[in-house]
Amino acid sequence: RRLPPALVGMAEEDPPNEYIENDVLQEALALAAAGSHAEAEAKLLGLRPDGRAGRSKAARLCLAVCLWRHYGEDRLDDSKALLEDILLEDPDTSAAVANLRQIRLAIKYRDFRKGFATLQAGQLSEAEVLLRGVSLEDPCDDVIRFNVANGIGMCLLSLKKKRSNVGTWFSVLPEAVQFFDVALEANPQSPEVLHNQGLALQAIGKHAEALEQFDAALRVREAMRPALVAKMSSLHHLKRLRELGELATRLLETDTACFEAWYERGAARLQSLMRKNSEKGNDFSNHAEYGGALADLERAFQEGAGRMAERQLLGMQRTLITAYSKQAELVLFKHSDPASALQFCDTALEVQPAFDRPENSELARAVYFTKAVICTIRGQPDRGIEFLHWMLEHSGGSPSVREAIGQISLLNKDYAYAVSMLEDLLAPGKVDATRVNLLYDYAVALVMLGELERARQVLRRLLRDVDDGHSRAREALAAVDAVQNPPAPATGPDFVADSFDGERPGYTWSAKGPHGEGYYRDFENQLRAMGWSEDLIQTLFTVGKPRVGEEVPDINVRYPYHNPFASLEATGGEASTEEESPYSAPGEIEVELEQLLFPGPYPPRVDPTIREQYLADDTFSGLFFMTKDEFQQLPKWKMLNLKKGLRLF
């Protein structure tokens, strides 16, 4: 092994003596023992190789110690080289072993300090390389192991990057969690490392585990602000809104400038109110609390100005937009104040004008839809449609925007335009519980256009696939069926025995009138009870094309005609007005699971709404852990949840 240039003169071919007893070495050893390492080094370097002088193990050992003690970190590598040469000659030299261990530990301290300084300077990639160069194997103490592991974990957490391994990309965050585990083995009570590990777990979506680490950090240091803020974020993701609100309030008691606490408390209030309103059908009974949520969010926006990261700012803007939008709905529907509602919508749009970002498109549509509704209420339906057309242009023809235009068109009683916008409602995968009322409105629009058969199909599909208990849809379907299939008219008086006076026959007319007028009157009253106008009722009863030989252009369904099902009364049969099903009964065919998984397409003759029923019995029981009969006894919501988990919904 080559020695540093300053020590080349000591390297001769002559074998070194085991001990050297000359005066120079004795003086150097005495100086080194007294702490005068520079003077000892000078004497040792002053030795000239005259015979065996200056080349013994003792001289090299003394020189290595002097270089270390005098020059510190600058000459650690030279000292290490001298000691390793000694151990190559004689591995049992205990003094060299002990000193080499200390020097190696000192080199690790030097490299660690250099890596940590690079980390503090923000050079994350360089710091990671330097810290990974520090081996955590012996010789290594808990101080180095703790700081190096924590430092590497902080680099990985800050970079949050992905790396490639044989073409496969993977996240480095789980590795950061493992390095924080190593650091915690060296110091289990470090609140900083507990907090860092919680952040890493939070970044990979393990919010429950992250919450445990934040709580552990707060048990060590109760007022640790970063851990409190991070804990609020995990509570937010876990939807533990009550705890989130309490924690945010407690933090604001000591730090009113904490914009994170203002934001989290406002967001918790807003989400809690939105959840309650959704459960109660948006009755806005707790409308006063919306003002508190909005005030918290505005205060957060004010306190965080200039201090928030871009990602934080975007999230806060989205929540604030939602709050303004909900406040607009509140003053519109609870207080009937469209002017104030419009002002809130404009304020929401001013928060983040860049609605062209994909993550903001849904928020923009909600605000613009509310503005469209307000314009319609204020007697400006054309202006409302303009807003919605803007949305349609900026969303690439989004189906949800088409539905919104259809809804506004329904409010404007532009039924033909509404039907053209809502045709996508019946596309595969679109018929679900969230659109039940819109489906009903679509059927009403078809009725208003006189397209009773299409309206009947929509209502039947609503009841069959979405909500079989929808009372208004059932009533509407009964009315449409009655119009299309009116009762048979009476053919004459009902004879009553012993009820004549000999001069004229005695009879009583049918209770519903000689031509079934009472039936129609009942249906009309039923429609009026449903809130249908007289114009709509007249449209219902005057539809279709002229009969052959009739000159009138319209047919009044009240006009008596022959009941094609009257002959069934004699045989006791029943008339079936059901359409022929395009699907096979589940018992007729069996289909493999792979052919039934969402999003399709599905095999012909398979009803997509009950795909699970086409599975073989053993396949079904293996998936659902019950028989098909037991499955049918479950509540509908539980059936849907089970089907969603297996991609059968």
TrEMBL record:
The keyword Repressor does not apply. Keywords: Repeat, TPR repeat. Residues 585-649 form the HP domain. It comes from the Eukaryota. InterPro entries: TPR-like_helical_dom_sf, TPR_rpt, Villin_headpiece, Villin_headpiece_dom_sf, Ycf3. GO terms for biological process: cytoskeleton organization. GO terms for molecular function: actin binding. TPR repeats lie at residues 191-224. PROSITE patterns: HP, TPR. Pfam families: VHP. This is HP domain-containing protein. It comes from Rhizochromulina marina.
